[in-house]
Every structure is written in C-alpha cells, then in structure tokens.
Amino acid sequence: MTMDIASRDDGRKPVIALLGEFSAGKSTLANVLLGTSRSPVRVTATQVPPIWFVAGGGAPVRVAADGREIDLPDGILSDVPLHSTRAVRIPVQAEFLERFSLIDMPGSSDPNMSPDTWDALLPLADIVIWCTPATQAWRQSEAAIWDMVPDVLYQRSLLLLTRMDKLGSDADRSRVLGRVERETAGLFRSVHPVSLLAATEAPSECETSGMADVMRALDICLSGKPPAKAAEAAPEPVPDSSERTPAAPVLPRRVAVKAPTWQRREERPNRPHGDPT
Description:
The protein is α/β, with parallel strands linked by helices. Helix content is 24%, strand content 17%.
C-alpha cells in the first residue's frame, strides 16, 4: 500500500532530510531550495548541528537532546554545543517551506554527530534527498550508511549527483550517471544529475541545472504513486538462416543470476536501525 503524504490528516508538513557525506552539496542544495543563503556552507565537517528549516519568522530555536527548546536570539550557530543539541530550528519565509520543512543534516561521516541525533531525526523524514558529488559518485562509505536506513524510505528518496558541471564531457557525465543508476537500482526512487552552481547563479534556469526534474520528483514522492516499471525491451528478431554469415558467429548473452542487492538486503535480519517507530 502506498501513502499519499500530501493528504495525510495529522496536519504536519512533509519533512525532507538532506543526507550525504561532508562537502557533497547538501547546504548549497538547501539554499537553492529556500531561495536564500540561510544554510551555512560548511568549511569543516563539524561546525554546526542539524538545521531544521520551517516556515515562519522569529529567532532560531535550539532543540536540546532532551527535547527542551532554547531560543537563540543572536542566531550564532557556531556557538551551539553539538553533543547536547538535536537540531536548530530556523524559521524562514520561503515559498518552498509552504509545502515542506527541510532538515540539513551534517555529513554522514561527521564524528561529532551522535548516533542519537541520527536516530531521533531520520524517523521524522518523509522524503530523503541524498547528495553525492559526481566526481566521486556513490562511494562504498555512502552505500554502507544508506544500507542502514529503513527500507520504507527507499521509494521516497532521491539520489542527486551534484557537481555534474565538474565532469569534462557529456560522455563522462553519461558514464557516471549510468554506473550510479546500476549500482543503486531499487535503493532510490530516482537519480538526478544536477549543477547546484548553475542553480545558484541562475535560479530561473531550473531546467538547465536539473532542479526542475528534482521538483517534479518531489511531487511524485508526495503523491505516493508506485514507481513506474521499466519498459521491457522488445526481443531481437532472429535472422533467417539464409541471411546468416558463417564467418560471424553469434555469441550468447550473459545472464545475470544474482538477485538485486536491494532484494537481498530486505532478507537480512536484525537491521541496525530496526523499526523507526
């Protein structure tokens, strides 16, 4: 059964969590979505805690690990104690936040991010956007982290290949995109190549930057529609025996016999995160 996130009756806006390793483009993406530079593009991996953007105005609020909320009238995030903070909630007037709230998470390999923070925030996410830089796309360390998220998120998650403009040619971009799509088959609803630099410099050119496809994919995630099945390739015609050339033997195709990785994961007991509830 699919869930229409947009029409649920609990009154809460859908929550999007931005995940990925350090310097993958998460904070830049947050600023592109918000249309303003409110998420600090981090110089180091350990500057600030998770930032939760919500619609509204007023001062930021620090949500402590025990759930207490403390006003941050000066809004200086670098002074926030990391180990005792679950998130900093920042109200922003942005069109995007009329439909969603947005959590910009620290890098998945950040040693200062407590596992308790991950466990507290990830179950709140209705949709996940994982950012991976095209120049080092989908490393083993990323796959290992994604392997620990609840399987229910797979079809409500997007994988963004950031920094596509750093690849030298269309052939390189096509090759990287093809490899990542093969390696992540079944693990994300869709894969999207984007240039966040282009989106930042020319927000109106969202088709060129790839962000228009991302926004359409978010709408589909909201609807809860099942992913479209890949069209089956038409069988190749068998040539007439009189037309065959004996000097060019037909080689048999290789047949994949292993089950897809995502299917094998679901069969593995005792997943680290268990039931998010």
